[in-house]
Design goal:
Bound molecules: NADPH dihydro-nicotinamide-adenine-dinucleotide phosphate
CATH topology of the largest domain: Rossmann fold
CATH superfamily of the largest domain: Leucine Dehydrogenase, chain A, domain 1
Distance between the termini: 24 Å
Number of strands: 12
Structural class: alpha/beta
Strand content: 15-25%
Low-confidence stretches: none
Shape: globular
Length: about 260
């Protein structure tokens, strides 16, 4: 039996085990997918091999650490420098990033978007910013602290901390921070958020499975919005396709994975 897992801290909220196990079950694959709470991201590679895994997903806050520990990184993950999917191939750890394409699938429903404000500067913000630029949507990055902004400025993006930032009109406001995941915080000060929402066409929180304070504010504003469920599904389908070495089509994987959301 092949074993897969998700690494994160926190990880108890993750729907990934249910999603991937549904695919294994419906497609009759001898595999199972578990959760691995990991506090020290630098141990990720050792734990992956100690558990005898065939593949894994990586979530907050270890995507950058995962990137560092791969034998080879493929595709858009090389530019993003953050990995959310690990596959064992001939004894080597291969890293991918499926968040980027998953996110672009999820925002199709908002219609044409010219520019976006990305709240946060972690691994997810990197993935989304690179993907947005590829999709000809200009991202601006806003984070509470300066430390992680270097990557974005080196990529040529406008990137600010709260104190340097002056609100301008953005079509889409995107929360990629973990504010609201296991606390009740907004990703930016409320007055600034209210102003940004008043000039936006839509907003999306990549957190899923709970109504975050950010989502509550969007609801009040009356804007079109979505949480992270569509992105979660799309990145999961792409990760499963990699876990199964392309033996099943994306459509075959999507149906049971989508069904798991109703369980
Ligand atoms: P990281 O740990 O890499 O980055 C977290 C970011 O959030 C940092 O910019 C950090 O700012 C900011 N932040 C954390 N707490 C607060 C707060 N209270 N107020 C303001 N900013 C805050 O996380 P990831 O990028 O890996 O993941 C971020 C979120 O995206 C998680 O909630 C994760 O679950 C979700 N996610 C959802 C996916 C989906 O499929 N729906 C896919 C991928 C991620 P600072 O730099 O100042 O510390």
């Amino acid at each position: 039996m092949k074993i897969f897992s998700i690494f994160g801290d926190p990880v108890s909220h993750s729907r990934s085990p249910l999603m991937h196990n549904s695919v294994f079950s419906v497609l009759n694959i001898d595999a199972c997918y578990s959760r691995s709470q990991l506090t020290d991201g630098s141990k990720l590679r050792d734990v992956f091999f100690a558990k005898g895994l065939s593949g894994a997903n990586v979530t907050v806050p270890h995507k950058e650490a995962a990137y560092q520990q791969c034998d080879e990184v493929r595709g858009i993950a090389k530019i993003i420098q953050a990995v959310n999917t690990l596959v064992l191939e001939n004894g080597k750890l291969i890293g991918y990033n499926t968040d980027a394409d998953g996110f672009m699938n999820a925002i199709q429903s908002f219609g044409p978007i010219r520019n976006a404000l990305v709240l946060g500067a972690g691994g997810t913000a990197r993935a989304l910013s690179i993907a947005l630029r590829r999709g000809e949507i200009t991202p601006t990055i806003l984070n509470r602290s300066a430390q992680r902004l270097d990557y974005f400025t080196s990529e040529g993006f406008d990137a600010y901390v709260w104190d340097d930032f002056t609100a301008a009109p953005y079509d889409l406001i995107i929360n990629t921070t973990s504010a609201g995941l296991s606390d009740n915080e907004l990703p930016i000060p409320r007055a600034l958020l209210t102003e940004l929402l008043s000039r936006a066409k839509g907003a999306i929180d990549v957190i899923y499975g709970k109504e975050t304070p950010f989502l509550q504010e969007i609801k009040i504003s009356g804007l079109p919005y979505k949480d992270g469920s569509d992105m979660l599904l799309a990145q999961g389908v792409l990760a499963s396709y990699l876990f199964l070495n392309g033996a099943f089509s994306l459509e075959n994987i999507e149906a049971p994975m989508k069904h798991s959301f109703s369980l």
